[in-house]
Amino acid sequence: MKRAWNIIYYEMGDGTCPIEDFIDARPENNRAKIFNWLAQLEEHGPNLPRPFADLLEDGIHELRIKLSGEQIRIIYFFCYRDFIILTHAFRKTTDRVPKNEILLAKKYRTDFLRRHAENDLKRQ
């Protein structure tokens, strides 16, 4: 039986959800493509290969999507065996993922893990 991963959108303490805001701001056809890629990530988890996904550093990963000619990166991490936490997304304009995007994901991960225990997520 295949392992099912659960995708969760990271939400800040004030209720702001950067990944949801990013997706909601995209045109409908872009949102459909994003949801298709998220379904692939949910199905394959860490086995989704490059060029579709990649490990950046220290457990921070990127989902690599091309939308309307733009290179989009959705940043995420795995936690508690069954969960993929999407932190945020951005339009990539350089060869490498900017260090500040990785640092932001690490900050969000620290906050998420501080506020959410594994049992809390399983009850959702």
Question: Can you tell me about this structure?
Answer:
There is one protein chain. This protein has helices at 18-24, 28-44, 99-115, 118-122; strands spanning 6-9, 53-57, 60-67, 70-79, 83-92. It contains four helices and five strands. A five-stranded mixed beta sheet has the order 1-5-4-3-2. It has a single domain (6-114), classed as RelE-like (YaeB-like fold, 2-Layer Sandwich), CATH 3.30.2310. The mean pLDDT is 92. Helices cover 37% and strands 30% of the residues. The protein has 124 residues and is α+β, with helices and mostly antiparallel strands.
Radius of gyration computed on alpha carbons: 14 Å
Order of helices and strands: EHHEEEEHH
- What's the number of domains? 1
Q: Segments where pLDDT lies below 50 for 5+ residues? A: none
Structural class: alpha+beta
Please give the largest β-sheet: 5 strands, mixed
Number of strands: 5
Helix content: 25-40%
CATH fold node name: YaeB-like fold
- Give the CATH superfamily: RelE-like
Tally of helical runs: 4
Short description:
A 5-stranded mixed beta sheet has the order 1-5-4-3-2. The chain has helices at 18-24, 28-44, 99-115, 118-122, and strands at residues 6-9, 53-57, 60-67, 70-79, 83-92. It has 124 residues and is an alpha+beta fold.
Descriptive keywords:
globular, 30% strand, 124 residues, five-stranded mixed β-sheet, YaeB-like fold
What is this structure's SSE topology?
Blueprint: E1 6-9, H1 18-24, H2 28-44, E2 53-57, E3 60-67, E4 70-79, E5 83-92, H3 99-115, H4 118-122
Parallel strand pairs: 1-5
Antiparallel strand pairs: 2-3, 3-4, 4-5
